[in-house]
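Re-run with default settings, no changes from the original entry. Doing this only to confirm the output is reproducible before filing.
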Amino acid sequence: MSTIDEADLARRFGGLRRLHGLAGYERLRATRVAVVGVGGVGSWAAEALARSGVAELTLVDLDHVAESNINRQVHALDSTVGQAKVLALKDRIAQIHPGCVVHAIEEFIDEANVAEILSAQPLDAVIDCCDQVKAKAAIAAWGWAQQVKVVAVGAAGGKSQPQLVEVADLSEVTHDPLLASVRQRLRQRHEGARKGRMNLVCVFSREAVLPPQDAACDVGDGSLNCHGYGSGVVVTATFGMVSAAQVINALLKA
């Protein structure tokens, strides 16, 4: 791991100290966050955290960078096509924040491995950017059990209006079939609250999903992921930035 001296730290992250004060800055500089799924949303969330000076990032994803990712994923470049996404992002973060410890985990998270992966290092928060219902529910349940803050991100596919992105408890989310399915599974399998707040912060949009506008496109399995419905960086990056802000602001208030 590369290191940078105190003068360089002051130049790179001095704006954060002026924004949050010394105590907030030091708290942020000690923060450890996992980002599950580092695609169109998660890659931007991870970059935002790195540029905010966090101490450690755990990046979890088994995918490799494809040319089709270039329209919306921050680490997707001609030079990174074919690389594991977590490794491409780790290399990028090293140029932004050399002191950040990055744990790159080439795995898809699921019910069987969620505890092993998320308990491998101490965590202050998790940003869940995956698009699998069972995995999202398992991550939320793990966060409840371990008292670790989880921010769950909804479906960005088929959305085009970044100004409509919202933050709410899972119990209040509408217009998002992915999070609706997560809510149902948490209630059925993980003792999620059936009335009132569910203690899971979500980033989502109530914008109606726009189906593919190109007649040559096919949504395939009908899922709401970015690949199936199409997506643009103005929305996926906004989801990522808002989710990172939720973590940063919550930890500063802790």
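The chain is about 40% helix and 15% strand. The longest helix spans residues 6-29.
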